[in-house]
Design a protein that fits this description.
Blueprint lengths: L3 H21 L4 E4 L5 E4 L5 H23 L5 H32 L17 H15 L6 E3 L3 H9 L1 H7 L3 H7 L2 H16 L3 E3 L12 H17 L3 H16 L7
Helix pairs in contact: 1-2, 1-3, 2-3, 2-5, 3-4, 3-5, 3-8, 4-8, 9-10
């Protein structure tokens, strides 16, 4: 029984590795319409990486639930969880941003041959994720609250980019997602949020009272509504809402 949570953790890692395979397959291509309009094509089915990162997030949640249910928490499980999270929510999302930077530069003349130096900032994401998880493992206070944005939350935000791009019905959204300066700003913002000491709420329920979990319930309800209205574009909105609600509620608590 004690190894059941570890199986879920390793499944998290397994899904993260599959996501990386989808991200790295084939290359960016450029096509043109008869009118001369340029289209930047994603590596084949890169959006599948987003789905596998989502699956990794589900089993990442379940491994903790299973560990508590079977009372099988262990020091090994904690370390495995962090190692898996670095891959699934650090390396894989970082490579997604790397590909989007390539796509952004590919829109420029001769941009397809851009120097790798312009793309390496995307690797700040896995570095920040590793630092954040290492700090988390050494901090015993982060049981029902976090210091800095949790790595899975940051990873899911970045993993939503291919789906937002793929299903976007507005050109302005496509232009933003493929704007290199927006991508650089996003890399810096997400990396700083992960490594910061910003007090943020955990989505774990310490009890079942509405009073103590009002902010989490509110986040859940609004998130469902946003998903129904905005589809994949709801992910970044929910991410921002999570930070705002955390800053409002966590600071009122005497201790995380």
């Amino acid at each position: 029984m004690k190894n059941i949570p570890n199986i879920f953790t390793l499944l998290n890692l397994f899904f993260g590795c599959i996501a990386i395979i989808y991200i790295l397959q084939n290359g960016i291509t450029i096509s043109y319409t008869e009118e001369g309009a340029q289209f930047i094509n994603l590596p084949e089915r890169i959006w599948m990486a987003s789905l596998f990162i989502g699956l990794a997030a589900i089993v990442d949640f379940l491994d903790g639930f299973v560990a508590r249910t079977f009372k099988a928490s262990s020091a090994l499980g904690k370390q495995l969880d962090s190692l898996a999270d670095v891959v699934s929510f650090g390396v894989a999302p970082g490579l997604i941003v790397y590909q989007f930077l390539r796509m952004s530069f590919a829109r420029d003349q001769d941009g397809i041959d851009i120097s790798m130096l312009w793309l390496l900032p995307a690797l700040l994401v896995p570095c920040a994720a590793a630092y954040r998880l290492g700090k988390f493992n050494l901090d015993e206070e982060q049981r029902y609250g976090f210091k800095g944005v949790p790595t899975p939350a940051a990873g899911l935000l970045l993993a939503s980019m291919p789906l937002i791009y793929w299903y976007a019905n507005q050109q302005v959204i496509v232009d933003i997602v493929l704007n290199k300066w927006f991508l650089y700003a996003l890399i810096i913002a997400v990396s700083l949020l992960m490594t910061s000491n910003l007090p943020l709420m955990s989505l774990k329920f310490s009890d079942y009272s509405i009073k103590n979990n009002l902010s989490k319930i509110l986040l859940l309800v609004i998130s469902v509504l946003l998903i129904l209205i905005l589809k994949w574009l709801a992910v970044p909105v929910i991410f921002i809402l999570y930070i705002i609600l955390s800053l409002i509620t966590v600071r009122r608590q005497p201790k995380m």
